[in-house]
């Protein structure tokens, strides 16, 4: 489940709009194609007297999802430091090896076909950190458990498809048309909050397309006041015809519990992605390569523009589609491919749904003048690749900042480094053509740390050799040690300062 604190988004596990059908009559399920029975049990107008009949029809297709994960835990308290090998060696003891422990997660899902395809959220089945997914189990409302195979998952949209199997047909539901939803429509959510399987809550659609401010290509949700909590993630949000119009995904909360503001992935967004995952098709999205900011009151006032229209370009990535088309920092994008850019329909959402390689027109306002630029849409990188492009030297652990290489540099210099991409160079205020490696972590007791090298420092060269990768830096260190040198000369650039050469003692 995603939580929002203030403006933070909380994942819950969502479901898409669907109608329940089954391969054979069972329990209180609706008889197939019996329109009269459907009309008899589904309220058409006004406040429903009861949701009981509709719930009885839909519950058989809503399932609980549990996972078993194995997490590696380093038992060495000095792990990651130059003194790691010392721990456990006292008295001739062998160094302590990493241990593992089990973890579990709970969520919700729903069956969309008689042969057992199940939709849920990616975050329900995706382990965090060093965890490894070992097992996924789907539990039916009657308590029957089935081992599940992960058919496919998509991190960007936070969707996943599982497959369960049995000789008999499964009850299932259908996606509905979420674009026809209106503010004030009744909805019900069924799921597994806090492990309480089969929990049903009701409410209304509070907003049809809500941008939470979290950013990303899919920050566009149905908002509802139906109570959803931890464990509802991946479960369905139904309309009064029994269609899945949303997949419960996140909440806005200051307490961690429901405060009446929940978010569901619209069915119109989810269904095409689900079908591609089932078919095993690669999911590709459009990409411009810009960092944007929605228009707010102050920004609009400074530019003399309407507050509710367009998005402001804060940065342009080198070599990407936007730069090639001539888009610049300070441009305000007002339409993309003929579609207005608004708070509800963001630039990221529009572009992500355009096929890479397509040539489109982007209307901008530059220095108060409207211009239209032709742009050939690029291909959106994976979420991991996008995360790796973000580097904040003021944060202890930057997103995606994994060391490019490890042992020798850390052992000899007390440093960890990552590649210097054009994006990171821009974030550090360096020219896009700058080459080198970025310091992502420093041992404060090392000679490098004591001489002012810190996170965000760029190493441009070593011993009069240009450095473009961690491997090249390792070669210089290895060569210096082979020659018996006790230090190497690093050519570095610290934020806000000119290039300098710093002699660093080897350890």
Describe the structure.
The chain is α+β, with helices and mostly antiparallel strands. The chain has three domains: 2-60 and 172-279, Trypsin-like serine proteases (Thrombin, subunit H, Beta Barrel), CATH 2.40.10; 286-379, PDZ domain (Pdz3 Domain), CATH 2.30.42.10; 391-505, PDZ domain (Pdz3 Domain, Roll). The protein contains twelve helices and 30 strands. The strands form five sheets. It has a seven-stranded antiparallel β-sheet with strand order 8-7-4-5-6-10-9. β22 (359-366) and β23 (369-376) form a beta hairpin. The two termini are 46 Å apart. The model is unreliable at 3-41 and 396-405 (pLDDT under 50). Belongs to the peptidase S1C family. Keywords: Hydrolase, Periplasm, Protease, Repeat, Serine protease, Signal, Stress response. Residues 1-28 form the signal peptide.
Strand order of the largest sheet: 8-7-4-5-6-10-9
Radius of gyration: 27 Å
Number of helices: 12
CATH architecture assignment name of the largest domain? Beta Barrel
In what range is the share of β-strand residues?
25-35%
Oligomer: single chain
**How many individual domains?**
3
Mean pLDDT: 81
Q: CATH homologous superfamily of the largest domain?
A: Trypsin-like serine proteases
What's the number of extended β-strand segments? 30
Class derived from helix and strand content = alpha+beta
Would you tell me which CATH topology of the largest domain applies? Answer: Thrombin, subunit H
Spans where pLDDT lies below 50 across 5 or more residues: 3-41, 396-405
Shape: globular
CATH top level of the largest domain?
Answer: Mainly Beta
């Amino acid at each position: 489940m995603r939580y929002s604190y203030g403006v933070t988004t909380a994942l819950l596990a969502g479901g898409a709009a669907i109608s329940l059908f089954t391969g054979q009559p069972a329990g209180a399920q609706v008889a197939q194609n019996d329109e009269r029975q459907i009309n008899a049990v589904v309220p058409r107008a006004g406040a429903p007297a009861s949701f009981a009949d509709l719930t009885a029809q839909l519950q058989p297709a809503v399932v609980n999802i549990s996972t078993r994960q194995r997490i590696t835990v380093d038992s060495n308290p000095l792990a990651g430091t130059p003194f790691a090998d010392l721990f456990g060696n006292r008295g001739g003891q062998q160094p302590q090896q990493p241990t593992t422990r089990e973890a579990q997660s709970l969520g919700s899902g729903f069956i969309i076909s008689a042969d057992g395809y199940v939709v849920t959220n990616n975050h329900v089945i995706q382990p965090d950190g060093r965890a490894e997914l070992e097992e996924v189990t789907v539990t039916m409302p009657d308590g029957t458990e089935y081992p599940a195979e992960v058919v496919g998952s998509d991190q960007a949209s936070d969707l996943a498809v599982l497959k369960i199997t049995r000789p008999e047909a499964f009850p299932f539901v259908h996606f509905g048309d979420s674009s026809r939803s209106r503010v004030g429509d009744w909805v019900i959510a069924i799921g597994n909050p806090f492990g309480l399987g089969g929990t049903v809550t009701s409410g209304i659609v509070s907003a049809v397309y809500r941008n939470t401010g979290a950013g990303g290509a899919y920050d566009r949700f149905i908002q509802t006041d139906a109570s959803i909590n931890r464990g509802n993630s991946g479960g369905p949000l139904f309309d009064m015809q029994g269609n899945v119009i949303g997949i419960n995904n996140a909440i806005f909360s200051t307490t961690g519990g429901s405060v009446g503001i929940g978010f569901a992935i619209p069915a119109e967004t989810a269904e095409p992605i689900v079908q591609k995952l089932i078919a095993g098709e690669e999911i590709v999205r459009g990409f411009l390569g810009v960092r944007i900011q929605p228009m707010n009151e102050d920004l609009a006032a400074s530019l003399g523009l309407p507050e509710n229209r367009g998005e402001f370009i804060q940065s342009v990535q080198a070599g990407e589609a936007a730069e090639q088309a001539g888009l610049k920092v300070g441009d305000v994008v007002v339409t993309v491919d003929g579609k207005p850019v608004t708070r509800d329909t963001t630039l990221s959402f529009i572009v992500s749904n355009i096929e890479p390689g397509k040539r489109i027109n982007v209307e901008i306002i530059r220095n108060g003048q409207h211009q239209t630029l032709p742009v050939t849409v690029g291909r959106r990188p994976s979420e991991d690749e996008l995360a790796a492009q973000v580097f904040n030297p003021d944060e202890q652990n930057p997103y995606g900042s994994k060391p490019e290489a490890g042992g020798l540099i850390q052992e000899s210099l007390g440093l960890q480094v990552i590649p210097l991409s054009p994006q990171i160079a821009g974030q550090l205020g360096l020219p896009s053509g700058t080459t080198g490696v970025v310091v992502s972590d420093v041992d404060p007791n090392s000679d490098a740390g004591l001489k002012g090298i810190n996170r965000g420092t760029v190493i441009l060269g070593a011993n009069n050799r240009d450095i473009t990768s961690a491997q090249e830096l390792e070669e210089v260190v290895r060569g210096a040690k082979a020659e018996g040198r006790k230090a190497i000369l690093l050519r570095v650039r610290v934020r806000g300062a000119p290039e300098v050469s710093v002699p660093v003692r080897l350890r």
